[in-house]
Amino acid sequence: MSEQTAQHDLDVAVIGAGFAGMYMLHRLREAGFNVRVFERAADVGGTWYWNRYPGARCDVESMEYSYQFDHDLQQEWDWSERYATQGEILAYANHVAERFDLRRDIQFGIELRSAQYDEAGHYWRLAFDDGSELLARYVVFATGCLSVPKDPELPCLDDFQGRVLYTSRWPHAPVEFSGRRVGVIGTGSSGIQSIPIIAEQAEQLMVFQRTPSYSLPAYNEPMDTATRDAIKANYEDFRARNQIHPNTFGARFPLNMGMMFEVSEAERQRNLETYWGFGGLFFTRAFADIMANPAANEVAQEFARNKIRERVNDPALAEMLCPDSTIGCKRVCADTNYYETYNRDNVTLVNLKAEPLVSITASGLQTEGASYELDDLVLATGFDAMTGALLRLDIRGRGGLRLQDKWEQGPQTLLGMQTSGFPNLFMITGPGSPSVLSNMIQSIEQNVEWIAGYLQWLRDQDKTVTEAEPESEQAWMAHVAETASETLFNACTSWYRGNNIEGKAEVFMPLVDYPGYCAHCAEVAAQGYSGFAKA
Ligand code: NA7
Predict the structure, then answer these.
(1) I need a labelling partner for 86 at 20 to 30 A (CA). Which of 171, 335, 382, 498 fits?
(2) Number of the ligand 1 atom closest to the C-alpha atom of 213
(3) Which of 13, 14, 23 is nearest to 443 (CA)?
(4) Is the distance from CB of 392 to CB of 148 less than 8 angstroms?
């Protein structure tokens, strides 16, 4: 037992057993720390445990959306489709938990309520929902970026007498829709993935759309075994190419460095068509300035709108589904048969911009234009992203400072991993890190390895306290804001900016530059973890 554990219950408490918490546990256990994970769900998987709605699927290709830290692990696992379903990703998480014997150090069905820093003892006092408490030298929040559903902000929701189903908290037992009148509220990624499947089962489906999203065909298909075998033959090299790619994923598709208006109209259209054909998130890579130049973005928007017009038979309906916002500033969706679903006789689109919602009623939904009778209400209304999981807790740092107060105007971190005033508290893929703009599992591995390396360094130096220095943190947040300001990411409402929620601080939270981030993290470590105060 280390000297630290003689005084405290744990060297490290990790909160959350999704992909971040699982790997953090593995890494710290290997390094000889006394570590334990606390998870409110009944099993591993994090966001993939909860988001079980029909059609839930990752928008990063399966050969990439997986751990790379273990050669044998990535060789032995076979994905069955180009984009993995929630069920297959969860099966993979279970496989990892078993393979590395993780569950023996994970406590399930327990929820953290508060965390308080003890300045004299330099440890965290953690209190859980079952009344238990423990002391940990370090606490690592592996609580996820999309783990807290946002309040759906629907008047009189409690009056509804039918079933209410949240996509982000979907029941474990199969949900039967046949013979039922189903309403879906929300047309972001969760709505767009579930709508085509619910439409196949329901007697009637009514989609209540406030803002249309850009959705691109995913071109999902069964795994091409030749592609899979070629990747596996040199998996490390494949991973390395994604590691230096600005987006961290899809390095096998070219990144066009050319500008939209440097080429002829014919070539422009040809190139947009090529990138559209790659499927999903790759379209905005068609020209280097789509995410920087409003005029270039407008061309890409119109191209995408014309694709919607091709897919929807009724021209008036197609126009209702066409967004007029900047493409890519809100995460684009990747779909299978989304727009075609509106060609079905049993599907109706209700435009809440034209006939605003008045309230939910006992038997359905009332707009300014009509009342709609429903048996089921599916809420795909999104998340309190990136900060929600931390700010709903009572976290108090130095001098009793509340995290809610410190982050009132928006999150402040150094590298997205520590925040000043809260010593020995770490976040994995926190705000201020590339996180949701990257392949999440790749970012998770980078953060976990950096944190594990830092904790070992502190132990080697006989130090027990680390805290972000306020000046370094301010400079870092200025850098995060500046990189975003060079793009069009601030041009619309999105959970990246927190303005999908009324009253939430409006700050662009993820860092745009993944390769620059990795290089900077490595440099900070090489300089003895500069910017962090240690004692
Ligand atoms: P999103 O992308 O935040 O979408 C939420 C949707 O719900 C969006 O269309 C919202 O419309 C709509 N919404 C939310 N509240 C309401 C109310 N009160 N009335 C009507 N419509 C409402 O969340 P998702 O879960 O789909 O996707 C999140 C991420 O998960 C996604 O980016 C992928 O990375 C995976 P609004 O735009 O606010 O008008």
Answers:
(1) 498
(2) 9
(3) 23
(4) yes
End-to-end alpha-carbon separation of the chain, Å?
22
pLDDT at 4 over 70: no
- How many angstroms separate the alpha carbon of residue 381 from the centre of ligand 1? 4
Shortest-distance atom of ligand 1 to CA 495: 3
Integer Cα distance of 410 and 366 in angstroms: 35
Chain position carrying tokens 């048996």 = 375
> pLDDT tens digit string along 279-298?
989 999 999 999 999 999 99
Question: How high is the pLDDT of residue 467?
Answer: 98
Q: How many angstroms separate the alpha carbon of residue 333 from the centre of ligand 1?
A: 11
CA 378-382-386 angle, to 5 degrees, is 155
Whether 399 has a pLDDT exceeding 70, the answer reads yes
The ligand 1 atom nearest the CA atom of 494: 3
Residue 352 is given by DSSP the state T
The answer to whether the beta carbons of residues 363 and 161 sit under 8 Å apart is: yes
Q: Quick check: CB of 291 below 6 Å from ligand 1?
A: no
What are the φ/ψ torsions at residue 376 (nearest 5 degrees)?
-130, 145
pLDDT above 70 as % of the chain: 99
What is the rounded CA–CA span in Å between residue 215 and residue 110?
37
Residue 187 alpha carbon to ligand 1 centre in Å: 6
Q: Is 211 in the pocket of ligand 1 (CB under 6 A)?
A: yes
